[in-house]
Each structure stands twice: as C-alpha cells, then as structure tokens.
User: Which sequence fits this backbone?
C-alpha cells in the first residue's frame, strides 16, 4: 500500500470492532468453562427411535428389511438374525428467560458478581450444555426462537450481552415459546408476585414445564444493616427509610422466606422445579441442578 | 486574674461563650444524625414495614449532652483556667532569704530550693537586692551579703542542709548585729526553736516577714536502745495530725561485707500522738551487724540514727571445769559470771572448737587448766585475731604445774606453786583489800567498795614484765588481775576464782564494772561525762544533712566529755566516734529531743508547699473536649449504623475471652465423672509432650491387657496436672521423671501427700535403668530425689522376694520394663515381720505400698498405638517379646495390688499358692 489511509480512521474502526467483539468471547468463554464442569451424558429418550446412538440389538421379526439386519452381530449367533436399533433422540426446545431488570444489577461486594452477570453466565452455560446435547435453545426476552447449533449459541451470547431494560423488576414472559417445550426462569423474584404467578400458570396451561432459579445476593439473605438507613432500589425508584434497620431484619427475613415458600408452592403446583442460588456460592452447583432439572422426564 | 474558688481564669471573658450553649443545644437537637443511603434490591420486601419504636428524628439527649459538654469544656479550656492561681508577691527593697538549714529541712530540700529560685527569679525581675542566709552557716562577718538576685542563682545549689540545728547563742549574736531595712522571706523547718521568737521580732523590726513552711511534718528517730532483749526505737513527728505508719529499716553489713537492709518494721503513730515507740526483735548475730536505723523514704539526718556499742551485745563463751558436785548452784565456778553477764551479753556454751567457730568476743575459762589436743592452738589463733581470753584461777590451777616453769602463751604471767591463803582459819593475816587502780589500768577511776576482800589467790612469779602486766593488785601489791597483749587480742587472768570461794569480789558491783571495762560486757547506754573524762575520740563516719553516712576523713580528736554534753554542731558533727576499745554514736537527734511545731504570730503570712502549686487546667479541659468529641464520632457512627463491623470485632474480642474457662471447667467435671465411675489409670503430665504421649500409650496398652486378661476394665487413661487436677479419684498414678520437670507447688505437694496417705499409689519411673540401674547418680535420679523430697514417703527397700507384688495375679520374680533392673523399691516391711508358719512368706504390712520406684521405663514397654501394635522395641527377638510379656504381667500385678491390696497375702489362698509353687 503506497498511500496509507488515515491512521486515525483505522484506529477508531479497530477500536469499535474490538469493543463490539469484546463482550462476546469472555461471556461465552466463562459459560463454556462453567459448562465444562458438567459431564453431559447422552440426552436420549431411553427408547427406540430415530437417532445416531446405538440403543440395542433385537432378534429380527418377520417383516424386517434385509438391510436392517446387523450381519456382524448375526454371524456371531447360531441361528438368529439381529437387528440393530438406535435410540430415539428427539431434540427439545428449551426457552430461557432472564430477568433483565435493574434489581439484578446488584452486588453487595466488589468480589461478588452482580446477580445479572451470574444469571447470564449460568443461562449461557446451560445453553452451551443443551446445544452440545443437541437441543434447541431460545431466549424469550428478545423473542429468539429455539434453534440448535453454534450459530444459535453466538446469537444467544449477543442477546445476553445486551443491556437490560429500565424497569425495576421484570416478570417472566413466554414469548415465542412453543407448546410443550421446556423453560428456565432465572431471576431474583423480588418484584410483584402476581406476574410471576401468572407466568407460571400460563406456562403450565401451555404444557410448558421447567425450572425456576432464584438468584440472590448473600446480603439479601442476611440483611446485615443497622441504624438509620434509607434503602433504595437499584433503579432508584423505590425508597424505604428506617431509623433502626436492625429492627427490620427479622421481618424482612420472614418476608423473604414467605416469598420463597410462595415460589416453591406455585412451582410444585405447576410441575416446575425451584431452587435458590446465591452469588457467593459456586455456580457449578446451580448449573448442575439446572441441567438435572431439565433432564428429568415428564 | 479573675477566679472562682480555687480556679482562676486567664481570659475570663471567653466564659461568656457558655451562655451560647442553650442555643447550641437547640440547634444540635434539630439536626439528627444523617441516614445512610443504601442500594438494596430487597427494598420491595421492606415496603410497608414500619419501625417498632417511634423515635423522633432528633439527636438523642445523651449525644446532645456529650456535644454540649465537649463545647463547654473547650470554652473553659480556652479561657485559661488555673488551679490555685498564685498571687504575685509585691514589694521592693532588699530581700533577705533565711533558711534554717538544719537536718529538719533536708526532707523537702529540693522543694525549698525551688522556692528560693522562684524568689530569686521574682527578685531579679523587680531588681531587688537579695541575700541568702543559712542559719546553720551564718555569714562570718555579720553583714548581710546583699547582691543582685541573679548573682545568687548560681550559688543556690551550693547551699546544703547541715546535720545539726542552728545554735541559739550564735544566732542571737548574729541577729543583734543586723542593721538596715529589708523584707524577709523565711524558709522555716517548721520546728519550734527557742531562738525563733527573738529572731522573728528582730526581722520584723527590719521589714515585712513572710514564712514558708512545709506542710509535711518533720520526722525524727531517737537513738535505738536495748531493753529486755528488744531493740526499742522512738519515732517522733512535729505535728500530731493523723494516723501514720512509719517504716523503719535497719541497715548494716551482711556476712559478705555488703551493706544492705537487714530488717524493717513499721511503727504506727496514732493520731494525736507525737511520738511512738517501736520494738524490734532481732537475733543477736543480726543485731550486732546493724549500723544504723532509718525512717524509710525520709532523707534527713534526723531520720537516721547510728548505733554504737551500746546496742551491740557481746558474745561471751563461758567454760568451766566439770563440776562433780551436782545442784550447788551458788558454788558453781561460773554462777556469778553468768549472773553478771546474762543481762547484757549473749552467753554461749559448748566445746572450745565449736565456740571458736562461733567467733565470740570473749571466752572465759573458769579454772580450766588443761586444754586437750588442738584446743590451745585454736584458742591462740582466736586470741591473736582479736579475742579476749579471760581466765579465772581456782583450786585446779593452783594445784597444777601449768605455766609454772615457763610462761604459757595463754597465760599472762607465770605462776608460783600453790598460791596463798590469807585471813582464813588456818592462816595468818587479814583478808586483803584492793589497792586503788593506777592510771594505766583499764579500771582506772572505778570506786573500790570497802567490803571487797581476797582470801586466796594464785601468785604470779616475779618477772620483769609483771609490773606492766598487772592491771589490778591487792593492797600489799600482789597482782590480782594481770593482762598480756597477744597481737590484737589479750589474755586476762583474775588470780581469784570466779565464785565467792576465794574472794568477795564476784559479789560486788565492782566485779561487773571491771567486766565492763574489760569490754566483756557492754555498758549501759547513757553517756556520762565523768566516764568519758580524759578520753579522746576520733570521728570515723559522719552524717550529712540528708542522713547519708560518709567517711569522716582525718579530723582532730574530740574530748570525751563533749560527746556526753554538747549538742552536735559544726565542730562536733554527728557521726560515729571511735575511742580506745569502743565506739560511740553521736546522733543528730538525742534521746531526749522533743519535736514541737513552730507557732507563728497571726500577722505573719505563711506559705506552704501544697497551696503553692499553680496548676494550669487548660490542657485538661481541652483534652476532655477532644475526648468527648471522639466519643461523639463513635456514637454518631453507632447511631447511623456504620459502626457495625468495628463494633462487632470489639464485642467479639470481649466475648472470646470468657467462655473457655467454663468449658474447661465442664471438661474437668466430665473427666472427674468418668474417673469416679470407671477405673482410670492416670499419669502425671510432665513438661515433655513426647514423654506424656508415651505414658498415655503405655497406660493404654496396660489397660487393654488388663481388660483382656483380668476383670479390671479400665477406661482410656488420663493425664493429670498436679497443680489443677483432683487426684483422689485415681487409684494409680504413673509418674515418669524427666530431668527438666518443674517442681510442683507447695499446694500440689500437700495434695500428693494427702493422696499417698489415703491409699493412692505412685509409680515413679526414672527410665534410666539401662545406664545406671536405679540410682541417684543419674540426672533423672537426682531429679526424682528433689521432686520426692517433700513427699511423705515411708522407708523403702528393694522389692523382697516375698512381697505381695510378686503374686497378686501372676507369679513374678522380675519386674522388667524396657530395661531389666531388679532395683525396684517399695515400702519397707516392718522390722518385726516374721516368717509365717508353713509359708514361704512373711506376714507383711497390711497396706498397699504408697510408692513403687524404679527405672525400668515401664510405660514404653507397655505402650501400644491405636491398633494395639507395640510402639517401642523391647530386648531382642523372642526374649524381648518375653520381656514385654513379663512387663505386662508386672503391670497387671501392680494394678491388682493397687486395687486389691494385700488380699493375696491372706492365708486363705496359701494352700493353692503353695501348690502352684510346688512346695
């Protein structure tokens, strides 16, 4: 190149590109790393059907086509012909919903991730696992329909790195969720309980079941406050002032326990699974739980 | 300076700021502590919760009070408060500073000098001429040395208190010669002297007089005296205000020649009394070493009293020939001597060698002629070293040939054979009286009573030296008392008996006086001018005003009568005066000195130390303000909930300290409960953790063997700490000895002795039989000896072959551990133990031996780890295993012995045992 372009143009272009690309690999890498902690087994249907994996040999019946005979196995037998059967591997659709509300943007300590970051990492790691297992994964937040494959993973990554919305607390939604699919809701479930209940009952009506993971900050479980305090929500829309925060502790913890009970109850009623995860604890345990919750047969 | 009560203010106008406090109160009250704003997602759950207590949004009253106090303190602090503000002394013209300068001043000397310096500073500021006069050191020429005050400043340190008080005559002469007008500042010692009023009136004529007096009373000690075996000492004080406890210490040289405090005691001076007497009982040895008594904490010559020979009691050894006749006390050769000496000398008795070792001052031989063996040499050495050998004649001396042909070293003169008797029934002449003493004689000056008569005496052989050796003689010139100097000592012979057989001398008062003069006994304490007439005394040690004893250097001699009469003064400093054969202490305070407080006319302003001090309080007030503000910071943090982590840490720290004690106690109780409910073997915890774990493992191994083979099923062994643990619940203690084991305390020993007496058993193991057998020559053996010394251990013997330990469970003859030594000791059998009829055993004591002592390292042989595998090798191969087995058997026997006592000694089992023994 004889006539070099303006260096500043290149620099800014490159900078923009890097800025754009930067969030993708770390989140995905973190999710992949988390996903690597779970050994995936075959995600089959435990019955004969279409698939790649060997399921069983069975003696041939009259009517089996000749090409279906497994000659190698039959040759070892004395007088019978065997047919090789494959396991039925049907792809499921798993819809993820992440709370993108402001309340998730909270971490009580610098060493802890925010609840949103934790939720995204968990969700994406679950997506990695599911896609690796051949499932279709979608995201209800942005209406991304369930698809499988690495491209879908990149799509999910991009969607999850997008900024959250401005609302203080978000309610689960089931946009683009096919009937009889499965779903995962990740949130702190601190907001109004009505929409949450509504979403879960609607899901049950549509034959969707799945798992509810409540992500909480350790501080929210302990309420270690004292003295005259004004509590503000992360978005700044809600305030509560108290003169002796310490006196509120028990009542707050009661309310939190009530909220958890309510969630557990509604999950039990609708056939969902419920668990709590604290950002201070190891995420792999939560991931494992999510994965097993989804593996459970209907 | 404006002042409220004792507090003055440098800037009183600032105090008006205090009026603002109520406004401040209102202002502060309206401003509550700011809330913390916290981001908290869970706020949705909080909505609708209200506070329990309806608290106003105002500052709590106590915080308000704290802040107000802080600000008030700051205002007061800046106003410059001063406690006891000093009123400026006004005046001009020359200033005379009078200092008493005696020993009574010495106690507060530095404070006095500080005051003098302050006065000089004021005087030099106002340009006053100043003179300083110490009344014990009056200006020679009579004129007052008025100079610029700054010129005096450099001389103040040179003014020192003297060990005596001002002399009235000198003072009167001096004060009469005073002229001119001046103001006087008089630093008085606070005592009432006879010259004080005269001097005061003279000084008041010249100008105003201000008196400065210490509020502390003057303390003084009168000379110690010896009464009825006790040292009595009077402490006096000038003011009889409150109760006071005065500490008196006695100082002297210890046996190594180092000066140190030999004794101390307290005298309680009750309120209202000016004098109290303390009594001190001291062993004669110690008392003779005392050189001075001091009031503790008072530096003054009056608070020190030197002791002299009057307090010393001489040690006199009295020896007499064996008296065949019993019970005739009045005829005893030494009866009168003892009577004369017992009141003021310490008598010792014994053989000559023993006596010389005690190094008495005097040895008296009453009619002893022959000295056996090395006694003469020993005695001679002692005499030459400064002893006084006092001999009395008697029938034996008269009858012997001792010192007849040639002079014996231990006799002053040669004697003629036989002696003589006068005035008896079988002799001519009259009993002889004494001739008056010559000037050379130590008895010179003593009155001779008329009734002293001598009827018998031994006669001195005429010799060239006889005349000079005679110190007392009879009227006819025959020597009665002769003396010979022997290097530093002397030998004195009374040519009569020490009892009334030969003369009436021992019955007379003269006898006692003669003994006193010979310094055999000490004299009574009062000095008497007549006694001391013609003697010359030199000052050896002197006291300075502060009561320090200093070497006097070379000073001219003092005539003896002055010592008795005159008060101490510049030419008769207090101290220790030495004469020919004794020493006299002249103290700053006489035995009849009285202390009374000075009484000043009402118009004389009196200053004291205590009211003088001007204490600026600004720093204190400001510190308080700062402290209050710091507390306010903490309190505010607390109120707003920001103190959580710090407070939690502090509270945690406070709480952590308490609980372990309770836990430990519970542990103790558990341990005790388990020990009383099951048989528990115990070992003594030493300072060596390896040793302790071996002991534990050993007892564990033994416990296992016991459970397996016998009906004793001990629980896990425990270690006991002799200091803290209860021992009585353990039947058996294994005590391994290590070289550096600490000695238990006295209480622990009491506990151990109680344990041993009430049936406990201790197995002492020195663990060194491999090197020494059991003996006390090893370090462990020596340690065992030291440790076991305070224990109540009966006589011991090596285990006899018929001891019950050899057959309580197994039949044993050896007691090996890791080492094989037969030196195992148990309580000795009583001497009258007899072979029982038809048995190979004796009927032995019925008790369990309280101790078994050996060095075979049993615990190591018994020790097994958790899996039951032996931890330490024993011997070699099969023989070693056999040895371990026998060690276990010994352990079983031992525990059986502990638990069953001498049950196996009972005759019931004898047939079976005999059968097994093949007899």
Assistant:
């Amino acid at each position: 190149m004889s006539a070099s372009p303006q260096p500043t143009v290149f620099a800014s272009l490159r900078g923009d590109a890097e800025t754009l690309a930067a969030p993708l690999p770390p989140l995905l890498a973190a999710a992949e790393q988390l996903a690597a902690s779970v050994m995936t087994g075959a995600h089959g249907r435990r019955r004969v059907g279409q698939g790649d994996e060997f399921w069983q040999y069975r003696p041939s019946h009259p009517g089996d086509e000749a090409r279906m005979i497994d000659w190698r196995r039959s040759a070892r037998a004395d007088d019978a012909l065997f047919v090789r059967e494959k396991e039925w591997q049907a792809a499921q659709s798993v819809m993820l919903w992440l709370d993108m509300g402001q309340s998730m943007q909270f971490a009580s300590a610098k060493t802890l991730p925010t609840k949103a970051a934790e939720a995204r990492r968990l969700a994406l790691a679950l997506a990695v696992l599911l896609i690796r297992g051949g499932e279709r994964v979608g995201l209800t937040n942005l209406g991304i329909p369930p698809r499988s494959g690495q491209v879908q993973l990149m799509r999910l990554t991009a969607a999850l790195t997008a900024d959250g919305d401005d609302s203080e607390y978000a309610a689960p939604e089931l946009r683009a969720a096919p009937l009889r699919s499965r779903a995962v809701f990740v949130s702190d479930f601190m907001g109004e309980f009505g929409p949450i209940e509504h979403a879960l009952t609607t899901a049950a009506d549509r034959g969707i079941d799945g798992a509810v993971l409540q992500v909480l900050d350790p501080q929210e479980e302990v309420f270690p406050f004292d003295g005259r305090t004004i509590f503000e929500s992360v978005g700044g829309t809600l305030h509560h002032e108290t003169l002796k925060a310490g006196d509120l502790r028990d009542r707050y913890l009661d309310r939190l326990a009530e909220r958890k009970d309510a969630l557990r109850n509604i999950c039990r009623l609708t056939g969902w699974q419920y668990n709590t995860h604290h950002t201070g604890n190891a995420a792999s345990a939560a991931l494992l739980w999510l994965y097993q919750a989804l593996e459970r047969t209907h | 300076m404006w002042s409220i009560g004792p507090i003055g203010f440098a800037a009183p106008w600032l105090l008006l700021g205090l009026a603002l406090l109520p406004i401040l109160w209102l202002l502060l009250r309206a401003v509550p502590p700011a809330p913390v704003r916290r981001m908290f997602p869970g706020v949705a759950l909080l909505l609708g919760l209200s506070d329990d207590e309806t608290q106003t949004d105002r500052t709590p009253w106590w915080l308000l009070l704290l802040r107000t106090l802080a600000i008030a303190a700051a205002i007061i602090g800046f106003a410059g408060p001063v406690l006891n503000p000093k009123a400026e002394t006004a005046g001009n013209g020359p200033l005379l500073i009078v200092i008493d300068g005696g020993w009574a001043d010495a106690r507060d000397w530095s404070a006095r000098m500080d005051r003098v310096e302050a006065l000089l500073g004021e005087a030099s500021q106002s340009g006053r001429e100043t003179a300083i006069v110490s009344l014990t050191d009056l200006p020679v020429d009579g004129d007052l040395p008025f100079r610029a005050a700054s010129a005096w400043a450099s001389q103040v340190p040179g003014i020192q208190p003297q060990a005596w008080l001002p002399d009235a005559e000198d003072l009167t002469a001096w004060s009469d010669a005073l002229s001119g007008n001046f103001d006087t500042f008089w630093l008085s010692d606070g005592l009432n002297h006879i010259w004080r009023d005269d001097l005061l009136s003279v000084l008041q004529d010249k100008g105003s007089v201000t008196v400065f007096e210490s509020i502390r009373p003057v303390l003084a000690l009168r000379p110690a005296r010896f009464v009825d075996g006790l040292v009595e000492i009077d402490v006096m004080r000038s003011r009889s205000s409150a109760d006071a406890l005065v500490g008196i210490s006695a100082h002297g040289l210890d046996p190594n020649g180092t000066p140190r405090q030999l004794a101390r005691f307290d005298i309680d001076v009750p309120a209202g009394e000016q004098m109290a007497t303390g009594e001190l009982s001291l062993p004669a040895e110690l008392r003779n070493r005392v050189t001075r008594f001091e009031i503790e904490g008072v530096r003054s010559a009056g608070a020190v009293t030197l002791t002299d020979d009057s307090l010393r009691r001489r040690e006199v050894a009295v020896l007499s020939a064996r008296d065949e006749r019993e019970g005739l006390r009045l005829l005893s050769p030494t009866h009168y001597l003892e009577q004369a000496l017992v009141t003021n000398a310490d008598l010792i008795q014994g053989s000559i060698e023993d006596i010389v070792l005690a190094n008495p001052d005097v040895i008296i031989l009453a009619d002893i002629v022959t000295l056996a063996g090395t006694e003469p040499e020993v005695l001679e050495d002692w005499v030459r070293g400064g002893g006084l050998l006092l001999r009395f004649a008697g029938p034996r001396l008269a009858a012997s040939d001792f010192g007849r042909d040639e002079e014996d070293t231990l006799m002053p003169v040669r004697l003629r054979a036989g002696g003589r008797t006068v005035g008896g029934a079988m002799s001519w002449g009259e009993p002889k009286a004494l001739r008056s003493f010559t000037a050379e004689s130590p008895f010179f000056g003593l009155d001779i009573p008329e009734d002293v008569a001598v009827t018998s005496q031994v006669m001195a052989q005429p010799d060239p030296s006889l005349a000079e050796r005679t110190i007392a003689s009879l009227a006819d010139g025959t020597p009665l008392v002769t003396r010979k100097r022997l290097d530093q000592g002397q030998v004195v012979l009374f040519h009569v008996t020490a009892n009334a057989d030969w003369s009436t001398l021992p019955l007379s008062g003269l006898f006692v006086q003669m003994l006193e003069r010979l310094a055999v006994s000490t004299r009574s304490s009062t000095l008497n001018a007549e006694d001391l007439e013609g003697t010359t005394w030199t000052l050896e040690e002197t006291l300075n005003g502060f009561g320090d004893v200093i070497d006097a250097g070379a000073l001219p001699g003092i005539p003896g009568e002055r010592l008795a009469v005159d008060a101490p003064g510049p030419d008769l400093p207090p101290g220790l005066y030495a004469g020919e054969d004794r020493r006299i202490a002249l103290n700053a305070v006489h035995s009849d000195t009285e202390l009374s407080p000075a009484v000043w006319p009402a118009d004389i302003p009196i200053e004291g130390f205590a009211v003088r001090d001007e204490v600026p309080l600004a720093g204190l007030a400001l510190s308080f303000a700062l402290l209050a503000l710091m507390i306010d910071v903490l309190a505010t943090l607390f109120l707003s909930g920001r103190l959580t982590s710090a407070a939690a840490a502090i509270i945690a720290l406070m709480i952590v300290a308490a609980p372990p004690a309770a836990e430990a106690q519970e542990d103790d109780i558990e341990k005790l409960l388990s020990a009383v409910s099951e048989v528990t073997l115990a070992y003594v915890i030493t300072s060596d953790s390896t040793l302790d774990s071996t002991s534990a493992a050993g007892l564990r191994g033994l416990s296992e063997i016991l459970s397996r083979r016998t009906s004793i099923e001990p629980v896990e062994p425990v270690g006991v700490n002799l200091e803290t643990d209860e021992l009585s619940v353990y039947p058996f203690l294994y005590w391994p000895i290590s070289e550096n084991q600490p000695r238990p305390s006295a209480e622990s020993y009491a506990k151990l002795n109680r344990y041993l007496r009430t049936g406990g058993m201790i197995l002492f193991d020195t663990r060194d039989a491999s090197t020494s057998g059991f003996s006390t020559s090893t370090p462990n053996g020596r340690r065992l000896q030291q440790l076991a010394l305070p224990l109540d251990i009966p006589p011991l013997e090596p285990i006899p072959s018929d001891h019950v330990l050899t057959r309580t469970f197994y039949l044993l003859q050896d007691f090996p551990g890791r080492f094989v030594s037969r030196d195992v000791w148990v309580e000795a059998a009583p001497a009258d133990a007899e072979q029982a009829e038809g048995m190979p055993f004796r009927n032995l004591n019925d008790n369990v031996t309280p101790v078994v002592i050996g060095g075979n390292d049993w615990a190591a042989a018994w020790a097994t780890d958790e899996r039951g595998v032996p931890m330490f090798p024993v011997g070699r191969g099969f023989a070693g295993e056999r040895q371990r087995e026998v060690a276990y058997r010994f352990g079983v026997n031992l525990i059986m012995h502990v638990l069953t006592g001498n049950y196996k000694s009972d005759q019931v089992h004898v047939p079976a045992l005999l059968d097994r023994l093949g007899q």
About this structure: The mean pLDDT of chain B is 80. The two ends of chain B are 115 Å apart (CA to CA). The longest helix of chain B spans residues 877-900.
